[in-house]
Design a protein that fits this description.
Layout (H helix, E strand, L loop, with lengths): L2 E6 L2 H17 L3 E6 L10 H6 L7 E2 L7 H18 L4 E5 L3 H12 L3 E7 L9 H12 L2 E4 L2 H9 L7 E3 L3 H11 L3 H8 L7 E4 L3 H4 L2 H14 L5 E4 L2 H10 L7 E4 L4 H10 L2 E4 L2 H10 L3 E3 L8 H4 L3 E3 L4 H13 L16 H14 L1
Parallel strand pairs: 1-2, 1-4, 2-3, 4-5, 5-6, 6-7, 8-9, 8-11, 9-10, 11-12, 12-13
Length: about 375
């Protein structure tokens, strides 16, 4: 029986990989070894996911932890190489665009082990983002490229990658979103934060382009404080963002409620019932589009243009005045009546991805 090494390491990996791993194990066609790199080690960012997503305990944990991009990448590269030498696999399956993704793909490639990439083909064109480097290089060394949307397939084709190795399977992260949301007590999540349905703004910001520049971060907080006069602004802050606020001595305005990182179930419950979401996260752009919640992305580029064309996402750049205007305009209007329909974002992508893996290994 063919063996798949499935590698997870950071918060987004779990969400994207859990449906695929589950479907592979249910198929009975392959043996799956699950390796956790330990890139995220806070319970709210990793262990809690494993429980909530129904993913079994990993067979091994590299415990890489935090560090620079080079340190994390090197740690995962060495750890995955050692694991593959001890436990040979026919395919290494990675997801997303974090350091663990790139390192695991490189380790497998150098050992002549095939690589499958869940969420292939996304492109922002912004090479200042480490994620863009990770996703492009991972795609280059991958043998099986599993895409969330047609634009991703077209990106790969433009880069000279095509044929049977490129498969449009849909968005596996949406499988996890729908599964968790269906089992979550949304009223309890709202009550715990002291907010009401459609009565608050939800914010996530963590990317270096904003949070590593005190003047930019301060300007965003100022706008959020102004919006807080209309509706409460709930800001579950990434540890990176909290650290930058403290280092820069930026005070949190009245009306902005800072919160600890949340379990996935709590976060998506709040996301589903927010009046507006402001983010620089890629995954949140996708989730809000499926949930039918207006989203303002505080970035100049997005690797998920389908969320703009078919979803509820608006790319506003990193001008605080533009953010203010877009938010005020959105709050003055009516929220969408129903979520838009995006092809392949239907809760069944994990099964399609697993089928593509099985077919690849059988060929």
């Amino acid at each position: 029986m063919p063996t798949v090494l499935a590698v997870v390491g950071a918060r987004p990996n779990f969400v994207k990989m859990a449906p695929v791993v589950a479907a592979l194990e249910e198929s009975g066609e392959v043996s799956v070894r699950l390796l956790h790199t330990g890139q995220h080690y806070d319970r709210a960012l990793s262990d809690g996911f494993i429980e909530q997503l129904g993913m079994r305990e990993p067979d091994a944990n590299l415990g890489v932890g935090s560090g620079s991009h080079a340190e994390q990448t090197a740690g995962v590269l060495a750890g995955v190489e050692a694991d593959l030498r001890e436990h040979p696999a026919d395919l290494t399956l990675v997801g997303g665009d974090v350091n663990s993704t790139l390192a695991a793909a490189l380790a497998a490639t150098k050992l002549n082990v095939a690589v499958g990439h869940v969420e292939s083909g996304l492109r922002s064109g912004d090479w200042s983002m480490p994620e863009e480097v990770n996703r492009v290089v991972t795609d280059r060394v991958s043998d099986l490229l599993l895409c969330t949307s047609q634009d991703a397939v077209e990106n790969l084709t433009a880069e000279g990658m095509g044929g049977d190795g490129v498969q449009l399977v849909g968005n596996t992260m949406i499988d996890s979103l729908l599964r968790i949301l269906d089992a979550t007590d949304r009223e309890a999540a709202l009550s715990a934060q002291g907010v009401e349905r459609r009565g608050f703004i939800l914010v996530t910001l963590h990317r270096p382009g904003v949070v590593d520049h005190p003047e930019r971060l301060g300007a965003v907080l100022e706008v959020l404080g102004e919006l807080g006069h209309s509706l409460p602004v709930l800001f579950p802050a990434h540890p990176r963002t909290v650290g930058r606020l403290e280092e820069a001595g930026i005070a949190v305005p009245e009306g902005v409620r800072m919160a600890e990182p949340m379990d996935y179930s709590d976060f998506v419950a709040l996301e589903a019932d927010a009046r507006l979401v402001i983010t620089d996260s890629g995954g949140v752009q996708e989730e809000t589009s499926v949930l039918g919640v207006p989203c303002l992305t505080y970035r100049t580029t997005t690797e998920r243009p389908i969320t703009v064309f078919l979803g509820t996402n608006t790319l506003v750049g990193i001008n605080p005045a533009t953010l203010r205007e877009a938010a005020e305009r959105e709050l003055e209007g009516e929220p969408p009546d129903r979520p838009p329909e995006i092809p392949g974002w239907d809760g069944k992508a994990g099964a399609r991805a697993a089928g593509a893996v099985v077919s690849f290994l059988a060929s």
